Fold this sequence. Notes:
This protein is of the alpha/beta class and 435 residues long. It is built from 14 helices and 15 strands. It has two domains: 5-330, Alpha-Beta Barrel (TIM Barrel); 345-431, Sandwich (Immunoglobulin-like), CATH 2.60.40.1180. It has helices at 8-16, 18-24, 34-47, 58-61, 67-70, 75-79, 92-102, 138-148, 174-193, 211-214, 216-226, 280-292, 311-327, 425-431, and strands at 49-53, 106-112, 152-158, 200-204, 231-232, 242-243, 257-262, 296-301, 345-350, 353-358, 366-369, 375-380, 388-392, 395-399, 411-417. An eight-stranded parallel sheet has the order 5-4-3-2-1-8-7-6, sandwiched between helices. It has a four-stranded antiparallel sheet with strand order 9-10-15-12. Strands 11-14-13 form a three-stranded antiparallel sheet, with no helix packed on it. Strand 3, helix 9 and strand 4 form a beta-alpha-beta unit. It is elongated, with a radius of gyration of 23 Å. The relative contact order is 0.13. It binds alpha-D-glucopyranose. Alpha-D-glucopyranose is lined by residues 8, 11, 54, 65-66, 204-205, 246, 261, 268.
Amino acid sequence: MSDNRFSRRSYLAMLGAGATLAASAPAAPAPAGDADRARRMRWWHEAKFGMFIHWGLYSVLGRHEWAMEEEGIPVPEYEQLAKRFTPQPNSARAWAKLARKAGQKYMVMTTKHHEGFCLFDTKLTSYCAPKQACGRDLVREYVEAARAEGLRVGFYHSLMDWHHPDGARCAQDEAARRRFVDYIHGQIRELLTNYGKIDVLWYDVSWPLDAQGWESERMNEMVFKLQPDIVVNNRNGLPGDFSTPEQHIHAEESGRAWESCMTMNDSWGYQRADDNWKSAKTVIRNLSTCANGGGNYLLNIGPKPDGSIPEESVRILSAVGQWMDRNGATIYDSEPCQPSNSVFANFTRKGKTLYIHVYFWPGDTVAIGGLQAKVVSARLLASGKKVEFEQEQFRVRFKGLPATAPDEPVTVIAAECDAEPTQNMDLIRTQRPRT
Ligand code: GLC
C-alpha cells in the first residue's frame, strides 16, 4: 500500500482481491471478539440494504469525485470550489425519505472524501463546510435527517487526503506521518464524539500508509471505546467487521460478513454526463444476489451541489421501493441460501421457505431442477395467490401461472418446503436417465 504509483485503477484492482486483503491483514483487536461482533452486527445483517451518499466539492464540478486527481487540478484552484458549495439547508431530509421509501435501512455518507474537504465541524482544519461559504455542519443535518426516518447512521471517512500538506510525504517523513495520523485520528474522534450514536464507520483508501503506519489497531480501539455498538469496515488495513467488495458482488466463503457497494450509474460523486444507469430490475437482482450470499448491498447516490438527488436515482429507488413494499420480507433477515442463481431467477431463503425471484418470466410454468427438499405449498408472494405444483426426482414445476409476469420487475414465488431447501445440479447431470 505504500506504492507511490497508487491510482484509482490500482486500488480497484486490489479491492477485487478483497478476500486476499482480509486474509493477509493482521488479526482484529480484542474488543471485536466473536460474541461481541455478533451482537454489534445483528441489525446490520437483518438490514441487508443501505444507501451510500457521495457528496462534497466534487459535486460542484459534476465530473466524478476523482476529478481533482484525474485532471491534475492544483490545490489552490480546487479550494475555490468551497466558495460555490452552498447547498439548500437540510437536503439530507429528502435523501433519508427516499432511502426509507426504497426499503434501505441505513445510510453511509462521505464526511470527508479524498479531496480533503470536511462536511462536518472540525477544530482541526478550516477546510470544512461550517467555516466556508456553506456555513453549516452538513454532517449534523445528515445525522438528524437519517434518525428522523428511523434509519441507522454511517460515516464514510477517507484516510487518503489530497489536500492535507502531510497527506503524501507522511510515507517518507516521520514528523509528517505523526502530524497526519494525529489529524485523521483526531477527526475520527470528533465524528464519533459529537453526533451521538453512530452505527457504521466506513474507512476508505489507506494510501500511502499501511496499518502500522496508520496505527490502525489504536484507531479501532478508540472507535470501539467511543462507540461500543458500532461496526467498522476493512479499509484501514485491518479486517474490521466486514469486507467491502466494490462494484461487484463477491460472497465471502468463510462466513465472514460482507457488503457490496455499488454506484447506480458509473460514478460515486455527481457526474452530470454519466447516463449509464442501472435499471430497477438490475438493482433488485443485485440486492437479492447479495442476500443469497448472506451479504448486504450499499447502493450509492451522488447528490448535486445544491443537495438535490439526480432524477434518475429518484426514479430507480422509487421503483425499487414499491417492489420492496410487496417483497421486502424475502430480503430482510433472510439467511444464506445454497441454491444460488439460475438463468432466470435468484433465490433467497428463510428457514424452510425458498423465495424464487423470477426476473425473466417464462410464462405458464416455472421449473427448478435438482431441489432436494419436498415442496409442501407455494404461492405468488405479492398477491398471496396459491400456485399449483408437481414435483418428481429431478424437477419441480410451478404450473398454471399467468403468461406475463404477475409482479414487475421481479416476481417472487414462495415455496414452503419440508426441510431447508438445497439444490443438487450434479444429480441432474449424472443421474437423469439418458435414452
Ligand atoms: C473507492 C474510490 C472512491 C469511492 C469508494 C467507494 O475507494 O476511491 O471514490 O468513494 O471507492 O467504495
